[in-house]
Amino acid sequence: MKAEKQKNAADAPEDGNIDKIRDILFGSQSRDFERRFARMEERLSKEVSDMRDDTRKKLDALEEYIKSEVKSLTDRLVSEQNSRADAVKELSDELKDLSHNFDKKVTNLNEQAAKSESDLRQQILTQSKNLSDEIQKRHNDLLGSLERESSEIRDDKADRTALAELFTEMAMRLTNDFKLPDAD
């Protein structure tokens, strides 16, 4: 009976036994690492996507707000210029001095509108830069977090050389090729 077991053990391929042992010992840990990496990757992708969507929504909202404000200002300016131009035409014969003052006021309003538009553009540029900096900071934070977690996972995995020696010794014991040194 014992000789038959030894013969069956010798006939079975060693690679199959080693794969089975490796799967028994490390299969769940390997699958756990794979699941953790997959979850981390999904979470990172979702956070980046959410951040991108959120930023896009904010930029779209900001753009719409700015467009509506500029359109409102432009409409007001056009409307005001039109009404004043009509008033100038009606009063030009009688009030030449007032038309001259009115032209000065219109010029000042245009300068103020140009200055307001310039200030608004500067604010948009500043806000855009701040959003870009925030996105870069979040990207760097997420990248650092991913690198730390990857490093922790690498540090937690078993040493391959030690595992190879352990499996070699186990295989030799299973095949009765391993002899303990005699203690003299």
Task: Explain the overall architecture.
The protein is mainly alpha-helical and 184 residues long. The protein has one domain (14-154). The chain contains four helices and no strands. The protein has helices spanning 2-11, 14-91, 96-156, 160-174. Helix 2 packs antiparallel against helix 3. The radius of gyration is 39 Å and the shape is rod-shaped. The model has no long low-confidence stretch (mean pLDDT 81).
Characterize this entry briefly.
With about 180 residues, the protein is mostly helical. It has helices at about 1-10, 15-90, 95-155, 160-175. Helix 2 runs antiparallel to helix 3 (about 95-155).
Give structural attributes.
mainly alpha, 184 residues, rod-shaped, single chain
The largest sheet, given as strand count, sense and whether it forms a barrel, is: none
Q: What level of helicity do the residues show?
A: over 70%
Q: How many E-type strands?
A: 0
Kindly report the oligomeric state of this protein. Answer: single chain
Question: SSE order, as H and E?
Answer: HHHH
What count of structural domains? 1
Roughly what fraction of the amino acids lie in strands? under 5%
Helix and strand content put the structural class at: mainly alpha
Overall mean pLDDT: 81
Q: Unreliable segments (pLDDT under 50, ≥5 consecutive)?
A: none
The Cα radius of gyration reads: 39 Å
End-to-end separation: 34 Å
> What is the overall number of helices?
4
Shape descriptor reads rod-shaped
